[in-house]
Amino acid sequence: MMETKKILAKLSNRTPTLLGKEQFTKFAVLLPLIEKDNEIHVLFEVRAFHLRRQPGEICFPGGRIDACDQNEQEAAIRETSEELGIETSKITNIFPLDYIISPFGTIIYPFVAIIAQCTMKPNKEEVAEIFTVPLSFFKQTTPEVYHVHFKAQPEADFPLDKIPNGKNYNWRLREMDEYFYYYKDKVIWGLTARILYHFIEIINQD
């Protein structure tokens, strides 16, 4: 049948992707490595305290992927350049890490890169301060892990009477691990710590 051929043609000419991806906000971040005191350090930012979202929290450079960005990597480089006040040419050896789909409707694309020795002029509109931590500290430190539980809460007019078990429907609970690293007076946690832990897992593999 012609209808069957049309259906098969549409299925054969598409590449599978993430269902509902257009509803997600997409971000790209960069885990920067720099040479300091004859060893490798990880660079972090402290978000400006006047920001509406997560003021004062420790993070990696990064931000929303814009329409002008050719891809996720370009977004991570652009954001890092803007936030640290450095030329993009100072950012080299860029490699992707596993991307994250968060429970909060975002997809985060992390990258790791080397930043050459240069003068940094952090953008005060976004960055309160920058600091570094020796990579050896994270390679030798096991983070504390805590759990956050998410409970399903249907809307008041949700048609519970139309589904099996109704009000007693057994909603699946979601659990998320939160990692915590403590370095001097700094608390590194959340997605930043999760990306960092993933990176350490990779480089610690035999």
TrEMBL record:
Pfam families, per database record = NUDIX (PF00293)
Identify the SUPFAM superfamilies for this entry: Nudix
Record GO terms (molecular function): coenzyme A diphosphatase activity; metal ion binding
- Does the keyword field hold Metal-binding? yes
Cofactor(s) recorded in Swiss-Prot or TrEMBL: Mn(2+); Mg(2+)
Which InterPro entries does this UniProt record tie to the protein? CoAse, NUDIX_hydrolase-like_dom_sf, NUDIX_hydrolase_dom
List each copy of the Nudix hydrolase domain by range.
24-157
Record keywords, A-Z: Hydrolase, Magnesium, Manganese, Metal-binding
Instruction: Report the leader peptide range.
Output: none
Instruction: Note whether Metal-binding occurs among the keywords.
Output: yes
The name on file for this protein is NUDIX domain-containing protein
The species this protein belongs to is Thermolongibacillus altinsuensis
